[in-house]
Each structure stands twice: as structure tokens, then as C-alpha cells.
Design goal:
- The structure is a single chain.
- It contains no helices and 9 strands.
- By secondary structure, it is mainly beta.
- The chain has a single domain, classed as Lipocalin (Beta Barrel), CATH 2.40.128.
- Strands 1-2-3-5-6-7-8-9 form an 8-stranded antiparallel beta barrel.
- A hairpin with a 5-residue loop joins β6 and β7.
- It is globular.
- The two termini are about 15 Å apart.
Length: about 100
């Protein structure tokens, strides 16, 4: 699948740009993997893939406990979309294949 593999993400947040790594694997319509930032790594959950469209969630604890909700599209060696940060709204993210 086009989404499988490792990605380097840049997320635009209220506290400036944040970098993260993402490792994804798809099976049917299910997306699994891990996302890491600042030395921490965690499993993604509720991951789905439909063609080039992807979505997943990840729980973080730093700088505060939140669940981030990602929706995006894979295009070749790029990925981009929106990251929902609960009550703070949605912000763009982009990424390239690592």
C-alpha cells in the first residue's frame, strides 16, 4: 500500500512547528503503527486507510495529555492533511517518506 513505511512529519501547532516520526503498516482498511516525537514513541489507534486517504489517532502526554486526530492523503512520497487537537481546533501537517 502507498502509505506503508516510515515518514517524517512536520506539524503546525499553536506552540510552533513540531517534528515527529511515523511508521505505518496497512492491512485491508486498517492502519497500524507508531508515532514518535521528542524521544517518546506510542502506538497509533483507530487507524484507517481507503486508497490514498488515511486517518489515525495518537495519545500524547507532552506538553499536556491530548488525543491528536490525523486525517490526510498520501501522494507519492508525500503525506499531508489536518491534525485535530480537541478544543484547540485543527492544524495542518505535512510529511515526507523517510
Amino acid at each position: 500500500m502507498a502509505v506503508d513505511g516510515n515518514w517524517n512529519l512536520t506539524m503546525t501547532t499553536p506552540m510552533g512547528e513540531r517534528k515527529a516520526t511515523l511508521s505505518l503498516a496497512s492491512s485491508g482498511g486498517t492502519l497500524t503503527g507508531t508515532q514518535g516525537a521528542e524521544g517518546n514513541s506510542t502506538e497509533i489507534f483507530d487507524g484507517t486507510v481507503n486508497g490514498d486517504d488515511v486517518a489515525w489517532k495518537v495519545s500524547i502526554t507532552n506538553p499536556m495529555p491530548l488525543t491528536l486526530e490525523f486525517t490526510g492523503k498520501v501522494s507519492g512520497d508525500g503525506i499531508s492533511g489536518e491534525m485535530g487537537i480537541g478544543p484547540m481546533g485543527s492544524f495542518p501537517f505535512t510529511g515526507t517518506r523517510a
